[in-house]
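The protein record filed here.
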Amino acid sequence: MPLRPHKQGLTDARRPHRIVRLGLVVLALTVLVGLPAYLSSHAGFFAKYPGLSAQYEPWAKSTHLEAGCSGCHVPPRIAAQASYRVRMVGEFYMSLLSRSKAPAVFDTPTNEACLECHSDLRSVSPAGDLQIPHRAHVSVLKMQCVECHDFLVHELSPAGTHTPPMVGCLTCHDGDRAKDACTACHTAKAAPATHASADWLIVHGGHADDPECVTCHQWKADWCVDCHAERPTSHGSDWRATHGERVKEHRGCEACHAGDFCVRCHGEVPSLNLNPALKIVQ
């Protein structure tokens, strides 16, 4: 039954008020929820926290600049992303009171998040100088991307880059758990012919100034120390009694010992088999 004229008039009179109230509700939600959600979804929101500014600056200069925080640190599922957005609204209002404590909203990136963009699982590095069988590591060995990719976004490596350092590779590629031959990974590097000589471990010190050494060995600052920090196998319990005979064969004392080391016992630097060209360690 149609409304009576006076009721119809009342309904028409109330309609503008309802529209106004609805508009006010929408405006309030936009200001109180939508705007905080928008502002807190940008990485710049976290740069204002003293505890996160150091991580923000490297990210701002990295190749992941276009990837938002939630793209990597939140699982790429609707429920997880929605939960993150809701929580960040609360974090926005908390930040108005204090920014001394950074929001604990970021988990370690998972393969699921990485594969949203890096779905190709390439097998060779962009420059073509490394064989990197990502599929074997991720799909077969079930490794997490972050196990290898240190210094990827939020900090620089000791070399000042976002490239994973080789020392990380050697965690597994130690010759036992995984192969450690240079050619197993490097497409343009192989041990020089000099390294195949039987006395290379003895004579290699004479090549220390060769600029080519760093092309392979400069993957860590103190790579010589790996060997030279260890006591040579020849220096057994009877070394003090037998070292004189060994020096007749090859004198390399000065490669490790300071110039006055021999003097402590001999009273002078022994001339036996002394090679003046051999640099004495100072």
